[in-house]
Design goal:
Layout (H helix, E strand, L loop, with lengths): L1 H42 L1 H10 L4 E2 L2 E2 L1 E4 L5 E4 L21 H11 L2 E9 L6 E10 L5 E8 L1
Antiparallel strand pairs: 1-2, 3-4, 3-7, 5-6, 6-7
């Protein structure tokens, strides 16, 4: 009886810790996005993208900023993979066949902000992992930013 109770309590702690971690990551992404947008508006696109590379507030492990054009679909800035800059990934599908980049562009163009879920290689482990990215258009510009977290 005690073993079953202890196992049940332990499982509850593990599940709670996983949920709290996801909630913490989500809150971190939203806070980071607020800072990134404020900085972008303050210094302009070119300087902001330079700063996003060197300032730990905008690039820290799995958390990084991506900037993309709504009109062209091209990635303007990528905080984890410079090889993607200038590329158009609107036809790229995740492992489930989801056109997640197109979904991000549609989100930025229509509502301006929101979450898009998809599977993508983790920048540190390189394993395909569930990712949740928050998309936010910079006012009425052609540019939107994305910041996400991995499960």
């Amino acid at each position: 009886m005690f073993k079953k109770l202890a196992a049940s309590v332990l499982m509850g702690v593990i599940l709670f810790a996983g949920t709290a971690n996801a909630q913490d990551k989500k809150a971190h992404v939203l806070s980071m996005m607020d800072k990134a947008i404020a900085h972008f508006k303050s210094v302009g696109q070119d300087q902001a993208f330079k700063d996003f590379d060197t300032n730990g507030d905008f690039k820290n492990g799995e958390f990084y900023v991506v900037g993309q054009s709504i009109e062209s679909g091209n990635i303007i800035y990528h905080g984890a993979n410079k090889k993607l800059e200038g590329k158009n990934l609107t036809k790229v599908k995740d492992t489930d066949g989801k056109l997640f980049v197109k979904d991000m562009i549609d989100m930025a163009a229509s509502s301006g902000t929101g979450w898009v879920d998809y599977k993508w290689p983790h920048p540190e482990t390189k394993k395909i992992t569930q990712k949740h990215s928050y998309v936010a258009r910079i006012d009425s510009t052609d540019t939107f930013l994305m910041i996400g977290y991995y499960e």
